[in-house]
TrEMBL record:
<dbReference type="Pfam" id="PF24864">
    <property type="entry name" value="DUF7730"/>
</dbReference>
<protein>
    <recommendedName>
        <fullName>DUF7730 domain-containing protein</fullName>
    </recommendedName>
</protein>
<keyword id="KW-0472">Membrane</keyword>
<feature type="compositionally biased region" description="Basic residues">
    <location>
        <begin position="41"/>
        <end position="54"/>
    </location>
</feature>
<keyword id="KW-1133">Transmembrane helix</keyword>
<feature type="region of interest" description="Disordered">
    <location>
        <begin position="41"/>
        <end position="66"/>
    </location>
</feature>
<keyword id="KW-0812">Transmembrane</keyword>
<feature type="domain" description="DUF7730">
    <location>
        <begin position="84"/>
        <end position="324"/>
    </location>
</feature>
<dbReference type="InterPro" id="IPR056632">
    <property type="entry name" value="DUF7730"/>
</dbReference>
<feature type="transmembrane region" description="Helical">
    <location>
        <begin position="12"/>
        <end position="34"/>
    </location>
</feature>
């Protein structure tokens, strides 16, 4: 006879079998998969033992064949051997005066147009005689400085990149000896037309102080329209006084200047007479910074209007004021 206690035991046994069979099957399945696909079943790479290779005999070069147009090779003579700078005849036999004349001929004795175009100042050599400034868009007569400046720049880069090499101090000395002619023998021409309005203010950023003082001749074509000096309203504070004073401060710091020519011009006729009235009323204040420019012995300023006075007292500066060749209001 089945009692209630035995019935409960039978039900518990059946429930254990029902719950444990899936777990047992899952464990058996995982073990079977592991046995067939485990890491121990993966093929191990075979390490081949490399055999020493026998060196192949080098193929001997073919003997030169005699040809009708073949130039016979000759040993270089003593005069053809390339020597270092310290041993070359140019530096060992020529005096410094003659070397400087050669530097001036190769790097200078011309007009160099400067123009600031971000991110640097561009320089172009002008071959036109009596050139004031060819402008920004015109390239008439403008050429590059050629291979002479490229060689000089290469010497500078060699010294900067390898300052510890033997003989680099002598190389720097040759560079310093020649670089002075690039600044002292050229006439630097600056125009404020188009994008050149900021060229003067960028000179201290791109020229080293020891090079700025080596500039001897400077010509500036100061266009009132492009430089922002042409007033369109009768208000005094529209005149760019801070930039005006900064420009004259930069010019006065050029202690080596010997010739300074500044010409105030109009590329196009003035838009109004406010600028004329302002210059007539404040001419003394406008040219007050000229008194600080005392280095150049030849200093000429061409005024923008004929009605402006040419007898201003700007001592101790040697500046001379001249009227313009043409009235800007009569330009066609």
């Amino acid at each position: 006879m089945v009692t209630q206690k035995s019935f409960r035991k039978g039900c518990a046994s059946v429930m254990d079998v029902i719950l444990c069979c899936p777990k047992i099957c899952l464990i058996i399945t995982i073990q079977a998969i592991w046995c067939w696909t485990g890491p121990h079943r993966r093929p191990r790479p075979r390490v081949r033992q490399q055999r020493p290779r026998r060196p192949r005999p080098e193929t001997p070069p073919l003997p030169p064949r005699a040809r009708a147009l073949t130039i016979p090779l000759m040993n270089p003579e003593d005069g053809q051997v390339t020597l270092s700078q310290s041993q070359s005849a140019f530096f060992s036999k020529l005096p410094l005066e003659l070397r400087r004349m050669i530097y001036d001929r190769a790097l200078g004795l011309s007009t160099a147009h400067l123009m600031y175009a971000c991110p640097r100042i561009w320089a172009r050599r002008c071959t036109l005689e009596g050139c004031r400034h060819a402008g920004i868009d015109r390239r008439d007569g403008e050429t590059s400085f050629g291979v002479s400046l490229a060689l000089l720049r290469a010497c500078r880069q060699m010294y900067v990149r390898s300052p510890a090499l033997t003989g680099m101090n002598q190389l720097c000395g040759r560079y310093s000896e020649a670089i002075e002619s690039l600044y002292s023998s050229n006439t630097f021409s600056i125009s404020t037309q188009a994008y050149g309005a900021h060229t003067i203010s960028k000179i201290p950023l791109f020229f080293q102080p020891q090079r700025v003082v080596q500039i001897r001749k400077l010509h500036i074509c100061w266009d009132l329209l492009d430089a922002g000096l042409d007033l369109i309203k009768p208000v005094e504070h529209h005149f760019p006084l801070p930039s005006w004073l900064k420009t004259w401060k930069i010019i006065s710091d050029m202690a080596g200047l010997r010739e300074l020519l500044i010409e105030f011009t109009y590329t196009y006729p003035p838009t109004s007479r406010y600028t004329f009235e302002f210059w007539m009323e404040h001419q003394i204040e406008i040219f007050e910074p000229v008194k600080c420019v005392v280095s150049p012995s030849t200093f000429v300023i061409t005024l923008p209007y004929r009605e402006l006075s040419t007898d201003l007292d700007v001592a101790p500066s040697s500046c001379i004021f001249r009227p313009p060749a043409q009235d800007p209001f009569l330009q066609v």
